[in-house]
Amino acid sequence: ESKLERELEESQTSRAALVAECQALLQEQQLTSAAALAIREAEAEQQQRVCDMLQSEVAKMEQLSSAPSSQVRSEQIEAEDIIGQAVPGAPQRAASGTDMQDDRMQDVLKTLSQMTRKLAQRLHLAEQELKDEMRSALKAQREVQDQRMQQTAALADKEAEMQKRLAQLERGRMESSRKSHSLQVEAEHSVVAAAVGQAEAQFEESMQQLRTEVSLEKSQHAANVSRLKQQLIEAGIEAQIREEDVARMVHFELQHSRQECDSLRRDASATMTAELVAIKEEAAAVARSHAQLLSAKNELQDELLVLQQQSVVDLAATQRSERAAAALRRLVADIRRAEEGAAAREAAAIEELTATRGRFEIQTTELEAAKSDELRSEELLHAAHEVQCMLHNECGALTAHVERAATAESVAQARAAELDEQRQVLRQECQRLRSDNVLLRRQLHCASPALQDIKIVAAARGRP
To answer: Which key words tag this protein in UniProt (predicted)?
Structure first.
């Protein structure tokens, strides 16, 4: 989970870096476009100034071309009127005046031709300046276009690199999520299996202890009965019969213990080594009990010889035998009650184990539901990644779709926040399930002291 969080943080930081780079590129493009617009406006203003200058020059030329002719004509008319009125007989003077006017006209025409030449030169220079300015503007525009192309290529390369990084991060995240999921499943299965195995082992140990205690109580009861019977027997034949009965009972107990051992072997085939050790211990206990029975038999034979030597008919012995018989009956009743209580406690322990298994099954179903929720969250993450890829693809057309990219980024952030909230909810559910598992383990650990208390009570009641 920490690795996934780190990868998510890295992806978020990389996404923020991409957004910052895209914004920087947008700002650069805006600046370049603003510079190009400023250049175009400056060119337009310069062209307008040149056009105004040309128009003013043309107006001046028109004024100059129109003003001398009108002045000359007016002067000619005035001169003719003056000459005609004042000196009607002087044609030579008028001719000389006309010659002077022609000279003036030639001078004016020369000046006009010079002015036209100067204007043509100025126009040529202005055209050259305009051409140079247009060439420089075209060069600047081409440089700006080249820079834009380089920036777009660099942006495309960066986007490709970021997509590769995102793909690598996604693959790493998927692998880490699969590994974490498999490890979590294995850990949960191992924990549940270990808890169930511990509970079953504790239950089997408690059952074996109860059986051994019951068998020991039965053997003690049989020994007490045989002892009392041997004490009550006065004749040797009856003693032999009782000894045979005791031997039969011992043989029956041995057969019963062997049957129990066989049943235990059949029931617990998975734990053969532990059962073999338990069977060996039981066989050793039976051998010890047999040796104890033989020693008790020898002691009773000695006591019988002593009793035969003391007296054949002894009222005290009969009273003792009656008291022993009553005590034996009480002991048998106590043993039966203890067996019934042990059986009831065993049934209660079995019910508790079944209940714990049911709770384990419920928890497994809850874990499966949590896993399904996690798969849904992974699908949502995949959908968010697809949305992010779409956003990165849309970044190629950021010049025309800036507002849509911003809204899509906000939507992606909201979805990421929702996914983070869902992950937090899933983590809380996992923590709750883990706490439930801890409580169940504690309950299982608490079940073993209850079984020990049952054994202690059974042992206390089984004492003569």
So the answer is: Coiled coil
Sign of the C-alpha dihedral computed for residues 377, 382, 385 and 386 taken in this order? negative
Q: Shortest CA distance to 233 belongs to which of 294, 307, 295, 297? A: 307
Residue carrying structure tokens 């003013």: 56
Please give the residue range of the domain that contains residue 153. 29-159
Structural domains in the chain (count): 1
Tokens representing residue 177 in the block: 């999520």
What is the DSSP code (8-state) at residue 244?
A: H
In a domain, 291, yes or no: no
Report how far residue 176's alpha carbon sits from residue 5's, in angstroms, rounded to the nearest whole number.
Answer: 11
Please report whether residue 369 resides in a domain: no
Q: Which amino acid is at 22?
A: C
Residue 101 resides in a domain: yes
What is the DSSP code string of 311-363?
-SS-HHHHHHHHHHHHHHHHHHHHHHHHHHHHHHHHHHHHHHHHHHHHHHHHH
Q: How many residues does the chain have?
A: 464
Which residue in 71, 338, 345 sits closest to 217, CA to CA?
Answer: 338
126-170 confidence digits (pLDDT tens): 567 656 766 765 676 677 667 667 766 666 676 666 667 666 766
Over residues 49-108, the pLDDT tens digits come to: 766 766 676 566 666 655 544 444 454 445 445 444 444 444 444 445 556 656 765 675
What whole-number distance in Å separates Cα of residue 209 and Cα of residue 376?
50
Instruction: Give the DSSP H/E element, type plus range, for residue 443.
Output: helix 402-462
Tell me, yes or no, whether 118 lies in a domain.
yes
Between CA 7 and CA 354 the distance in angstroms is: 44
pTM of the model: 0.23
> CA-CA distance, 78 to 82, in Å (whole number)?
6
Distance CA 242, CA 240 (A): 5
Q: Beta-carbon neighbour count of residue 274 at 10 Å? A: 14
CA angle 162, 166, 168 (to 5 degrees): 115
Side-chain-side CA neighbours of 110 within 13 Å: the count stands at: 6
